[in-house]
Amino acid sequence: VQLQASGGGLVQAGGSLRLSCAASGRTFSSYIMGWFRQAPGKEREFVAAITTSGSRPLYADSVSGRFTISRDNANRMVYLQMNSLKPEDTAVYYCAADAVRSILQSMATTQNEYDYWGQGTLVTVSS
Asked: What is the pLDDT of residues 71-100, one digit of tens each?
């Protein structure tokens, strides 16, 4: 799977952005999809994930209620709608794919669980 993230940019605090991640490969629907971010001088952190069907999302506490993850399996896309943005949301955002190997597999929040990564898109929130 190859991933291409886009949609980043400069936005004022309180504004919104929608990130997109386009995936190649015919097995997209068999991957849990996630978004991570890395702020300058900080480690990469989990933002959100979504199940293969798109029926169940998972969010980091810091973005819960403001961000929404969704996916379109027919078009091999995953999205991150970001509302009420704060300066502390400034980071490079990465989409990632985690191959499902077991019916009992849960959504991972650690980056080492994900198999494929996009190149990242920069989000800058000004105060």
From this structure: 999 999 999 999 999 999 999 999 999 998
